[in-house]
Design brief:
This protein is mainly alpha-helical. It is built from 3 helices and no strands.
Length: 68
């Protein structure tokens, strides 16, 4: 059983693992890179940063999961 504080991170990691299982490693790496670029572009505006930061985080986690 995980601590209640860690449950959102655990759920995010399980989501990323499921995406990786469905798409494969190469496609997941490409999707992660696209998410990072799209999140960085959205972070140029203040309003877009609300959606850009989570996209960057999910993209980095996808790339990390793809590599390991």
């Amino acid at each position: 059983m995980t601590a209640p504080v860690m449950q959102p991170f655990n759920a995010l990691w399980k989501l990323i693992t499921r995406i990786l299982g469905l798409t494969g490693r190469l496609v997941a790496g490409i999707i992660g890179t696209v998410f990072i670029i799209l999140g960085a572009v959205l972070c140029i505006t203040v309003i877009g940063a609300i959606a850009g930061v989570p996209l960057i985080i999910i993209g980095v986690l996808l790339v990390i999961r793809c590599l390991f």
